[in-house]
Amino acid sequence: MEKAIVLGATGGTGQVIVSELLSRNIPVIAFGRSENKLKNLIKEHHSTPLLTYQLGDVFDAQTISEAAKDADVIFQCANVQYHEMADKLLLLGESVMKAANISGKKIVIVDGIYVYGRQIAKGDENHPKLPHTKKGKLRVDFENLIFDKKWKNAKPLIVRLPDYYGKTSQNSYLQPTLTGMAANKIAVFIGNLKTPREYVYLPDAAKMIVEIASKDDSYGENWNIPGAGLISGKEIIKIARQITGNNKLVIPLNKLAIRISGLFDPVMKEVVEIMYLTEETFILNGEKYEKRIGKIPATPYQEGLKETLRCLMKT
């Protein structure tokens, strides 16, 4: 990989991918709509000449194509809000794929696990895609768009993450819990506190994503980005209390509580249908990565949570 462009570079996954690429001395173009955020990102990396930015809209394929002309890999980390997904997700897919197709670029699409629906077996990349939610079905349409044969010149791949956490995380389900506890406040936890769940530490995810993107034979496929094993909400809170010293109440929010919140918040309204992922265990199988790429980086939860919470306590 000679040079990369990261769409949605100031978002949760975008920031860690930028950092990982820079750690490998790969020049990066950060692409986004907010000049202030992009300039702050550059300051965070000590204004290294390896990092530049381009202003633009991910729904404008021509602008992306022009910004990416000197890059050989596009990392698509931009996303749309839950309540805008039905109207905008496929438009986003069409735009980024058209941009990659114009100039024959490799493109890495960062996505989630809604396409699978409920787990039938440990989820490898061939797990049946049987979504029972509107968002899951839409994500299947999104995948079909990404791999559509009409893109003669683009070379796409999709990486799939479970829920995640880390200092750059912005919209994950664990974020309200960690930000509340870091601020020494009463916090909330979305879902069942007893359900063992898989989370991926974002810096680990970035390492895996960049490794996959660096291999020519990775393209045209789906790839799992697994976490560091299963952990319950109770265990997370126990670790967070030890790190922060915050022993205040953490309130679990079940589907009814989210439904009520949705009466006042359009985003929370859209969370209801995918609450099954917070109540049931879904595990991503990483055997394909191990066989084709190498050892899976898996920061222990104690260590990842310590780093995340310490950063949050400084803000």
From TrEMBL:
<feature type="domain" description="NAD(P)-binding">
    <location>
        <begin position="8"/>
        <end position="117"/>
    </location>
</feature>
<protein>
    <recommendedName>
        <fullName>NAD(P)-binding domain-containing protein</fullName>
    </recommendedName>
</protein>
<dbReference type="InterPro" id="IPR050177">
    <property type="entry name" value="Lipid_A_modif_metabolic_enz"/>
</dbReference>
<dbReference type="InterPro" id="IPR036291">
    <property type="entry name" value="NAD(P)-bd_dom_sf"/>
</dbReference>
<dbReference type="Pfam" id="PF13460">
    <property type="entry name" value="NAD_binding_10"/>
</dbReference>
<dbReference type="InterPro" id="IPR016040">
    <property type="entry name" value="NAD(P)-bd_dom"/>
</dbReference>
